[in-house]
Amino acid sequence: MSGRVVEGAHGGGGVESRELVRDLFLARLGNPVLNRLDDFGLVDLPPGRVALTTDAFVVTPWRFPGGNLGDLAVCGTVNDLAMSGARPRYLTAGFILPEGFPLADLEEVVDAMARRALQAGVEIVAGDTKVVDSGMGPFITTAGVGVVPAGVVIAGDRARVGDVVLLSGDIGRHGIAVLSRRAGLAFRTEVVSDVAPLGGLVAELLASGCEVHVLRDPTRGGVAGTLNEIAAQSGVEIEIDEQAIPVVAGVRSACDLLGFDPLHIANEGCMLAVVPGAEAARALAALQGCPEGQRAVMIGRVRHGGARVVARTPLGGRRLVDAPAGELLPRIC
Amino acid sequence: MSGRVVEGAHGGGGVESRELVRDLFLARLGNPVLNRLDDFGLVDLPPGRVALTTDAFVVTPWRFPGGNLGDLAVCGTVNDLAMSGARPRYLTAGFILPEGFPLADLEEVVDAMARRALQAGVEIVAGDTKVVDSGMGPFITTAGVGVVPAGVVIAGDRARVGDVVLLSGDIGRHGIAVLSRRAGLAFRTEVVSDVAPLGGLVAELLASGCEVHVLRDPTRGGVAGTLNEIAAQSGVEIEIDEQAIPVVAGVRSACDLLGFDPLHIANEGCMLAVVPGAEAARALAALQGCPEGQRAVMIGRVRHGGARVVARTPLGGRRLVDAPAGELLPRIC
Q1: Which of A17, A229, A247, B138 has CA atoms 20 to 30 A from the CA of A39?
Q2: Distance from CA of residue B235 to its chain's centroid?
Q3: Cα A8 from chain centroid?
Q4: Which residue among B7, B54, B328 places its CB closest to the CB of A143?
Q5: What is the ipTM of this complex?
Q6: Taking CB atoms and an 8 Å cut-off, how many pairs form between chains A and B?
Q7: Which CATH entry fits the domain spanning A163-320: 3.90.650.10, 1.20.1740.10, 3.40.718.10, 1.10.150.320?
């Protein structure tokens, strides 16, 4: 389909829609459920608790160092499922495409989705495509279904005094990678997005037998936003040691250049884990045994106090870590 | 929130995002699962087959006679689930909002979603909001989860020679209602969209004990597009009696004015059912017993022949009914 572009008729539900589905989507994402071309996908789920989630992806530009919109659309939703402790199983994908978008570019996006779905062990079982006026998009909204193992209860309100906070890797790469390609802001950096599916990392952590209270991937709002959410949901104070948080040099210098705090920058391939203090060593070892968690570190602990996040400074002081406010980094995912 | 508008920060994942979620979304769509504010919703499903589906909704204008984007976002996905024979249970919703969109208008859309969710017996258990540059949208992508009763096997490839085709109501109202409010095309009509959830209608049909082979709601592509899909999937010829298909006067005259075939116009509140010929009377009675199916009629039958749709004309001739091609009616849902 090289040289061709998305046309209005591709979203009309007629002959052209069916050609696009068959020649572009099914050729890359096809599986026995999707290939049936019904308006629904039928799957069998084991009895028990199921995690459901959705995310709309509007990143601009749609291609960035380390990935594209398609990588995000699969990994972002897979990771939200994984943060419940669920094994991610099935995704749906709704595409909103601008008229005139090159089909070769759409192929690149869908190829990335296919690669990430394979890597994450999920199948895309239902989809929809709409075409809108040119000048905006493409946008992809994915929803996900995961199966929560018996006995696993992981949620944002389960952080307890005495727990420790672990971080699976270095922070800030996704946001900086996207910003480095944004019109009007382009700067030179070697930073590539950390976008990756985290279901395997979570599975290893749970398989270690470690008790896990909270898991969350610090996407929009960064580590600061995510820790503030957990502190608010659990009604606890979280104290972090800023110097313990790994930040690669490229992210550090880009943040200096742009006046950003790495704690506010979006990530798409790392996670925060809150586990009982007694489990810290076992949990860290489990994380560090996975490719996605080699750089895992302990960055803080849960304390008595108001629902807030504080950082210990190098000189031994304490400063409040606010959730980012205002339009800090729009359309990062 | 009257007088205020969507701002970039509402999609940033920070303080403003959380305010929007709490004050606008949770106030209308809240339930114990959604209220937890985790990045996932946990639900219990009975063992067995589950139907998954998704649709992106980009209708323009977003408000039309008989409903708005929010009505469509719930009913469209509920209906795709219902067409599998499933009982619709849970939805997820991803919002893509243009900067500057009035919050009062967003409230109107979300109010419609809340009403329709209640009517359809579904809960919205996960959501996401992104903000994009002004000038396009709002868009909503919903995904749905439904539970398929044991023994129910309904799919597009199950139409058999000897089956009959039933239609639950009159056609063409949704497409004409949307077009009547479109810039550059405005015309006077009393036609209101048929948008409605069809899960109750399907449940009654199945409760009648009638064997059902195919269900499908003729949305984009209309009755002609949908019947062509079924004919292709099942490898059969479908013959319809054009005069049997109910079309209200307002739709008829608007189609005459605009040069459209009512068979090509999108619907959002009626369905096609393919059932064995011996079941026709029982199925029709079940449909006609529901408010959404009072005007149900038999419109055709499944015959030996190529994968195509033909219509018997008033004079006894036969004409081929093509699926619509080209950009007939963009952004109707």
Answers
A1: B138
A2: 25
A3: 31
A4: B54
A5: 0.95
A6: 274
A7: 3.90.650.10
